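Quick one:
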Amino acid sequence: MAAHRSGPSAFTIASILGLSRPEQRSNMSIPYRPWADVPSTQNCHTVTADGSLDVAAEEEKSAITAPVESCRRTLNWYIGRRPRTAFSSLQIEILESVFQVNSYPGIDLREELAQKLHLDEDRIQIWFQNRRAKLKRSHRESQFLMVKKVITGLQGRDQQ
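Output:
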């Protein structure tokens, strides 16, 4: 049986990230955003050993490179999200017709659809996931309305 070590673990987040010593600092890497026109250099923030942003370094960087408002905008949670895919009415019509036949298309069918509709396969996969969720939600809502109708009918009968 393996002996259990008591005390602090050598595998802490700080040690894994190389932040175990207070004097160590590292820059966060620039995220991969192929849809961005210009690589974002504002997203490299200096991180201290406790995982927080180094405010002094951030202020120096913003004073030199960009206004404070711009730096604030780069810290928003939505920065870095890919742009929303806008499906055309023809694409939706085709996807809906395939969904009527098969709501769980395999990878081969998704790749074929992606090629013919000029979309990424992962967008097709997400569309089918969202469409199944929509079907489930509408089914649940219709069940609720039927139960509500029955209860209302029973209450009307009891009052007579």
